[in-house]
Amino acid sequence: SSTHLHTRAEGWIEKTSLKAVGDPVRKGQVLFELYSPTLETAQQEFLTAMERGGRLLDASRRRLAALGVGEKEIEELSRSGTVAPRIAIRAPHDGVVKELKVREGMYVTPMLELAALADFSRMWVIAEVFPQQAGWLSQGLPVEVRAKEQAELVVDGKVDYVYPEMAADTRTVTVRVQVPNADAGLLFNQYVEVRIFAAPREDVLFVPSEAVIRTGKRNLVVVALGDGRFALRSRQHHFRDFGSHRVVLVSRQCQ
């Protein structure tokens, strides 16, 4: 997921610790320092309210918070009694800079996005499932994710959402899987192998793979009807008419 950073007051970016897309950041790190006449005035009003006390002080504190001033900065303002020339804009969480749209000296408004931070501590993996397997899917099923480029990297997760439609181009059902990624082992846009562990079904006919005759055009099995009689069944029968009959295991040499 991504977090988009904006100011809540217009002003100038006078200092930034971000240099380029891909820079790692830590929660609480100062990303930008903003000079804003609006914030300067709000700080002065807060200091005046501190002298008078009462409801005006609470209102001034709420206004600073509404303008994006953090609790740490408000406490420092209370302690020092001095208006800060610049207000720090901090990272709300650990992550990586996904987009960086401002530089030092730029004039910014609340409408302008400063940067976007990607949060890799949790990730969504998008998997595609064949439609004949879609009936097995449900929210909460355990999942194992393996990175193709990193054979030793295996992450456990769970099915977060099964999309209620089939992809028009691939004719597959899309599944969203949520996995933890605190150590950033999985990378954005990386291809992975997904194994979804569905609950077992009962009263289902299982046919040994060795019993299936694959001709290249269709798959067949030989069914013993009794009294020395046999019949071929293909996939189009869905194997529903087996009844009490059994599937005959045919030697590979006979195919």
Description:
- This protein is mainly beta and 255 residues long.
- The protein is 15% helix and 38% strand.
- The protein contains three helices and 17 strands.
- It has helices spanning 37-52, 55-66, 71-80; strands at residues 2-5, 11-16, 24-25, 30-35, 87-90, 95-100, 107-108, 115-118, 122-129, 142-147, 150-166, 173-180, 192-196, 213-214, 219-226, 229-234, 246-248.
- The strands form four sheets. Strands 9-12-11-10-13 form a five-stranded antiparallel beta sheet, with no helix packed on it.
- Mean pLDDT is 83; it is low at 237-255.
Write the layout of secondary structure elements.
Elements: E1 2-5, E2 11-16, E3 24-25, E4 30-35, H1 37-52, H2 55-66, H3 71-80, E5 87-90, E6 95-100, E7 107-108, E8 115-118, E9 122-129, E10 142-147, E11 150-166, E12 173-180, E13 192-196, E14 213-214, E15 219-226, E16 229-234, E17 246-248
Antiparallel strand pairs: 1-8, 2-4, 2-7, 3-6, 4-5, 6-8, 9-12, 10-11, 10-13, 11-12, 14-15, 15-16, 15-17
Helix pairs in contact: 1-2
